[in-house]
Predict the structure of ABC-type transport system substrate-binding protein.
Amino acid sequence: MRAKNGKAAHPLLVLVLAVLLAACSNTPPPPVVSTPIAQTSVPPVETPSQIVVGIDDVVGGYNPHNLGDLSTITQALSQLLLPSPFRSDDDGTLTLDENLMTSAEVTSEEPFTVTYRIRPEASWSDGAPIAVEDFVYLAEAMKNQPGVVDPAGYRLISSIEPGEGGKLVEVTFSEPYPGWKTLFDNLLPSHALKDAPGGWQGALADSFPAYGGPFSIKTVDNERGEVILERNERYWAKPAAVDRIVLHRSDQQGMAAALRSGTDQFALAPTDADGVKLFSELGEDAQSHTVARPYLAEVLLRPAGPALADDKVRAGIAALLDRERLIAEGTQGGPSARLRAGSQVLAPSAEGYAPTIPPGPPRRPAPRQAERLLTEAGYTREAGTWVKDGQTLSLVVASPGQREPYARVARELSRQLIAAGIEVTTVTPQPRELFSTMLATPVSTTEPDQPTGQGQSQPQNGEVTVDIAVVPRPVSVDPASTLASTFGCGPGWDSEPPEGSGVRTPANSAAFCDEELQPMIDAALSGAEPLRDSLAELEPRLWQSNVAIPLFQLADTLAIGSTVSGVTPGPPLVGPFSSAVNWTRGPR
């Protein structure tokens, strides 16, 4: 560029004009090129794959063999942590678990003998082998400890012999036992528990000392309501697909919200009518199923004390109860309401179930019939209260702590009895105390002054007599075992009490023993008589005894979110946690 006088323009002027022209144009300036700076590559932190599950509660007491510990969390942990010789298929058929066993079969009919062979590599998480000692420990506890789940089959065991370094277990029975495959479910680590403080009654009170399943416990926080499990790296069989499972306490609204957001992968909890509606409104965010638990809620009118030892008094009390209201209070319109229990032995979810409950009490209340029965038993109603020989008819009603639905049902039952003129004392002992102590208190076998019906009087040593208990009652895939465990007299029922003491420990929570029915119960347990034939005669007799009033089978709602695969309702009476080794986490 030149000025008007022909001389070249000043270089600075040229640069300024170039900048101004560039600023006025649409063409962007050339990119600024910087000198590369060396950077250190940091690999991303790997986040464990985990599945989060909402449940109704995380309560202490995790022994699946204790009646006081029956809960959703206990059933879940036993599936994840404990080994069993047999597992249920989808249709409920018991099949050998080849992760633990190489074989288990009947090897002799006379005497009836079952031989188990445990995989050589099967071991507890602390390195101790799973062996014959674990079978012996569980069998002895189930035969001798009070408040255990389905002990009838174990009571038939006469000996357990070891072989092959403890990996062979030879179990001999005093009688044939067709239901033998139900035994030794959820084996416990005997080496860690047999000498532990508190013995059997303290076993698994807060956690598990060792594991023999695909998962192990990282933390148990009862205060926060959370259990964190991780893959058991010492598990010898197929490893779990996910690294971690988190079980945490939540309410219905919290579960529904967590499923909708994808924070939780599924939920398993008892629900009322509002909860069922909440989960149904999740639409594509969750699929809902009903999962029946392996136990019922029932009322026991125990012939253990002087009042209810009288047949007519028990019948009168049964006639006072409004069973429909008890069921409504317990189920709250949830899925359990569709599983009303109308049979003494079979659960509503069982194959072949049919109600056997007779018309009239306890199906429906009959106040006039109750008044007649109590009058025949020697009671009169004075100032609205039933009295005999100057003593008020007073009953103790118990439930396992504040656990639901038992506490709600117990309160409604107490209200009904009080309104009918009966004095009621309600007690809520800790669940383990209720089953292992209060319902197991020895009772007199001598004949009292008044008719007893079952030949029993009141507990000894000044213990509190529990007259009525609102409790869970287990059911098994083998109904004959359920029958014998629930209503059987137990070993030595036809002999004198030990050392002529005149007292005997009840063989079941109801303190029930009928010597006329016991041979039929034994025949059903051993297979000497078809169960159907035995029940046809036993069911009416058990209803007439007015000892057990089943209400409903407990059931949970299983809501499966869209971010998890492999979760199913599971086999009958087992639930979804049996398939946890195959669960996988997927994108939302």
Notes: The radius of gyration is 32 Å. The longest helix spans residues 531-545. The chain has two domains: 50-265+563-585, 294-444+463-554. The chain is about 25% helix and 20% strand.
